[in-house]
Amino acid sequence: QVQLVESGGGLVQPGGSLRLSCVPSRSIYTIKAMGWYRQAPGKERELVGTISSGDSTFYADSVKGRFTIPRDNAKNTVYLQMNSLKPEDTAVYYCNAILYNDRSYWGQGTQVTVSS
């Protein structure tokens, strides 16, 4: 299994940037894929983007061109770099990890609020 610790959420103005971090409790090399999801009030959790062990990335259309998922293997950390933030990006953001046995694990979530 794996525990995921997220950090970096907060309040940011529209057009601003924010970077979330996710640190797994096991080596990142033992994780098949990691991703970020978000859940806005009254809405279902939705996929933001993913990064595979081979560094392949996927992004939802709503964030493509604005968000990226860089990974720092030396720090055993996956990030969600969010630029050009919009009020509709306001949500609780969750880190997800899928192991090679296809079990899925979630972080505790971190709040991102985009507001002036």
Radius of gyration: 13 Å
The low-confidence parts are: none
Give the H and E element order: EEEEEEEEEEEE
Beta-strand residue percentage:
over 45%
Question: What would the principal axes of the Cα set say about the shape?
Answer: globular
Largest sheet: 7 strands, mixed
Query: How many angstroms does the end-to-end distance come to?
Result: 40 Å
Number of helices: 0
Structure class: mainly beta
Helix content: under 10%
Counting DSSP E segments of at least 2 residues, the number of strands comes to 12
Query: Overall mean pLDDT score?
Result: 96
Salient structural properties:
116 residues, mainly beta, seven-stranded mixed beta sheet, five-stranded antiparallel beta sheet
Structure notes:
By secondary structure, the protein is mostly beta strands. Helix content is 0%, strand content 52%. It has strands at 4-7, 10-12, 18-24, 31-39, 46-52, 57-59, 67-68, 71-72, 77-82, 91-99, 104-106, 110-114. Strands 2, 4, 5, 6, 10, 11 and 12 form a seven-stranded mixed sheet that branches. Strands 1, 3, 7, 8 and 9 form a five-stranded antiparallel sheet that branches. The mean pLDDT is 96.
Provide a quick synopsis of the model.
By secondary structure, the protein is an all-beta fold. It has no helices and twelve strands. The relative contact order is 0.33.
Topology:
Elements: E1 4-7, E2 10-12, E3 18-24, E4 31-39, E5 46-52, E6 57-59, E7 67-68, E8 71-72, E9 77-82, E10 91-99, E11 104-106, E12 110-114
Parallel strand pairs: 2-12
Antiparallel strand pairs: 1-3, 3-9, 4-5, 4-10, 5-6, 7-9, 8-9, 10-11, 10-12
